[in-house]
Amino acid sequence: MTPRERRLASDLRQMEELAGRDEFDFRCDGWPPERYEVMFSVAGLARSDSGGLVVRRLHRCGLYLHLDYPRRPPVISWLTPVFHPNLLPPQRNGGVCIGQWSAAEGLGDLCLRLRDLVSYRALNAFDPLDLEAGLWACEHEVRPGADPADLALLPVAHEDRVAVTVGRREI
Predict the structure, then answer these.
(1) What is the DSSP string of 92-130?
(2) Cα angle vertex 146, ends 53, 133, to 5°?
(3) Collapsed DSSP state (helix, strand, coil) of residue 54
(4) What are the strands of the beta sheet with 35-40, ordered from one edge?
(5) pLDDT for residue 55
C-alpha cells in the first residue's frame, strides 16, 4: 500500500467513526475512496423562497481528495442551499472557505469543522466568501455559537443598499 493509499484508508476509518454519530453520514467512491458526499444533520440557515432566512436541518457537501491531498486541502463543494459568510450555495458554485489547512488534519477533523461552520458554531464574518452573509452577520453582530433558530428571525437586507466595507471588501 502506498503512503497515499494508507492516508486515504485512515481517512475512511475516521469517516466511519463519524458516521456512528447522529449528525453525520456519508457515501464514498473508489478504493481507497477519493470522493465523498457528506451529510450533516444539524440546524443551519438557508434562504427561503421569499428571500428571508429559514432553518435547514440537512446539509450536504462533496469532497474530492485529489492527487495533491493531503498537502493541499480537498476540493469542497457545498451541495445544498445555505446562508453563511464562509459557505456559498450550489447556485453560486458551492464554494467553502475553511481557513487554514494542515496536512496533519484528517478528513474527519475537516468534517467536524464543516459541521461547525454550517451550524454557526464557527464563522469568520470579517473575511467572508459570501459577502451578503458576511455583511448580515456583521450588522447583527452574529457570534460563533449563535442558535440558527434565533438567527432565522433576523431580517436580511435587500440588494438596493449602500456600499459598506466588510474586512477588505466593499459590498
Answers:
(1) GTT-B------TT--HHHHHHHHHHHHTTSS--TTS-SS
(2) 45
(3) strand
(4) 24-29, 35-40, 59-64, 75-78
(5) 98
What interhelical angle do 3-19 and 107-118 show, nearest 10?
Answer: 40
* Nearest alpha-carbon partner for 32 in 73, 70, 79: 70
CA angle 97, 79, 132 (to 5 degrees): 50
Calpha distance 97→7 (Å, rounded)? 23
The DSSP output letter for 43 is -
Average pLDDT for consecutive 10-residue bins of the chain (171 residues)?
93 94 91 95 95 96 96 97 97 94 95 97 94 96 96 80 51 50
Smallest CA-to-CA distance from 124 within 168, 90, 163, 89 is with 168
Q: Report the DSSP beta bridge partners of residue 27.
A: 37
Phi then psi dihedrals of residue 37, to 5 deg: -115, 120
